[in-house]
Write a structure and sequence with these properties.
Largest sheet: 2 strands, antiparallel
Strand content: under 5%
Distance between the termini: 62 Å
Structural class: mainly alpha
Number of strands: 2
Strand order of the largest sheet: 1-2
Number of domains: 1
Radius of gyration: 23 Å
Helix content: over 70%
Shape: globular
């Protein structure tokens, strides 16, 4: 009897293109509609009206992936994200060619092989903190190529590495405490302070960090003890060959130690520069003052560059420049010739080209949604369904409502800007405080962005780890159920107790 052939999930590119086709079909079925829109991008309650349908055809479907890269009048493109990923690939390849990463990881494994579970808890705390404070998402792409070899070499699988970063940062974003791109924008749209509801969000951060860390570390221990427990057992040998480092590499040379210091400093600078210090401090930070002083000094300000931004104002363009500059410094310190450096950097960019393209194609889904004018209609249906409910029912259904909305609008800031002007007033009619609506929105968006194929971060991470979406969904299935139930329970505590 012939062995039954296992069904295989389509790869990331095919999955995203199929979603684009599905959304395009929806533009033929769902009526087009609009709200009046303010300058900040928020919809004005009570202004929804049906407009002429704009169904998306074959031409639009074929163009969407490329418009996702470039953007159009209605949707921002993914070019900055893609270029950041390519620059990161070049940087990592230059560092790898020095042998410093292999030697450093080998040293870490020899020293901490029996403490990998503790390492998972520490790393997930760091990522959760980043997600909660400044919405760490695209920036995490830098960490997957570093963690995957560690986890594979100690007998785990690439799923563990992806989960440490994606679940860690994702749980942090789900429980955003002072994240300006989620909490900040939503609070501004709702007309309340970002401090409102911070106790509930702080409790959620602690609870979901612990839940996520227990879930990931238990799976990691199980796989390390028995490889057959891995969800990708049939690929583990292949992964050992692809990602394994030489843990018996010799001691680090003086040059390699310098390279690792520069390498670590680059990531520290990235994190410090991305944290929105003025928002957290309620005014100018020390970095703003240093920036202003530099630009007040004749010649020095021009030498630094008048367009230079202080730490706290950096984003993708600036950290792309950071990785490129660090790659040049590392090449100079290690003595890599100019021709060799250029080839190394380009080879590294080529390694992550597919990841960059996945992020762009994922943005193409939003292009079809926005061009088809169906986002406002879906929001209007939710507005109608939620009116006239009790406090508890309104809160729970608001959370549930934000789950499909987050699939359609994977940008947390875009979702807040588009919906909070409608949802916060609706909550007032139901007797639900604005900060509860904000927390429900964050939680709904957060749980979706752990797994949604419309997120370039999720699909990019899986591409780096050589995993398909079906495996990731299988791994996350139980955690999603737990997170869903606990989220609603904590939201109801916020409504009736806090």
């Amino acid at each position: 009897m012939a062995e039954k052939k296992k069904r295989k999930m389509p790869n990331a590119f095919t999955t995203l293109f199929l979603i684009i086709i599905f959304v395009a079909i929806m533009t033929w079925i769902i009526p087009a509609g609009q709200y009046e829109v303010l300058e900040d991008g928020s919809f004005v309650p009570g202004t929804y009206h049906v407009i002429e349908s704009n169904p998306q055809g074959i031409w639009d479907v074929l163009a969407a992936p490329f418009l996702g890269f470039l953007g159009n009048d209605l949707t921002d493109g993914a070019m900055e994200v893609a270029i950041f990923i390519l620059s990161l690939g070049g940087f990592l390849n230059v560092v790898t060619k020095t042998g410093a990463i292999d030697a450093g990881i080998g040293h870490l494994i020899r020293k901490e092989k029996d403490n990998i579970s503790k390492l998972i808890w520490v790393l997930m705390f760091v990522f959760a903190l980043g997600g909660s404070t400044y919405g760490m998402a695209e920036e995490t792409m830098a960490f997957y190529p570093l963690l995957i070899p560690i986890m594979v070499t100690v007998g785990m699988d690439s799923l563990v590495a992806v989960a440490v970063v994606l679940v860690g940062s994702g749980m942090g974003v789900l429980a955003s405490t002072v994240n300006p791109f989620a909490t900040g924008i939503a609070s501004d749209m709702a007309g309340v302070s970002m401090a409102d509801g911070i106790l509930l969000r702080g409790i959620m951060l602690a609870v979901f960090y612990v839940i996520g860390a227990i879930y990931v570390s238990r799976y990691a221990k199980k796989v390390q003890a028995d490889h057959t427990q891995s969800l990708i057992y049939d690929k583990m040998e292949e992964q050992r060959e692809k990602f394994r480092v030489n843990e018996n590499a010799g001691d680090l040379s003086k040059k390699q130690k310098t390279v690792l210091w520069i390498f670590a400093l680059t990531f520290v600078i990235m994190i410090v520069a991305l944290i929105p210090w003025p928002d957290l401090l309620g005014g100018p930070s020390i970095f703003d003052k240093i920036h202003d002083w530099l630009h007040s000094v004749p010649f020095l300000g021009d030498l630094v560059g008048r367009d230079a931004l202080p730490f706290g104002s950096w984003y993708l363009v600036e950290i792309t420049m950071l990785f490129f500059t660090s790659a040049i410094i590392i090449a100079w310190v290690y003595g890599i010739k100019e021709d060799d450096f250029v080839n190394m950097f380009l080879d590294g960019m080529a390694d992550l080209l597919s990841v960059a393209m996945i992020c762009a194609i994922a943005r193409g889904i939003q292009v079809i949604m926005n061009d088809g004018q169906i986002t406002a209609t879906i929001l209007y249906w939710g507005e109608q369904a939620l009116s006239g409910l009790s406090k508890g029912a309104f809160t729970a259904l608001t959370y549930i409502f934000y789950i499909p909305m987050s699939i359609l609008i994977p940008s947390t800031s875009g979702l807040a800007a588009a919906t909070m002007g409608i949802m916060a007033p609706l909550g007032q009619f139901a007797g639900v405080a604005e900060h509860i609506i904000i927390t429900a929105y964050q939680s709904g968006a957060g749980i979706v962005n752990l797994v949604t194929p419309t997120s370039g971060v999720v699909m990019g991470a899986l591409a780096i780890a050589d995993l398909d979406l079906g495996i990731w969904l299988k791994f996350m299935r139980n955690l999603l159920v737990i997170t869903f139930v606990v989220s609603i329970a904590l939201l109801l505590v916020g409504v009736y107790v806090l």
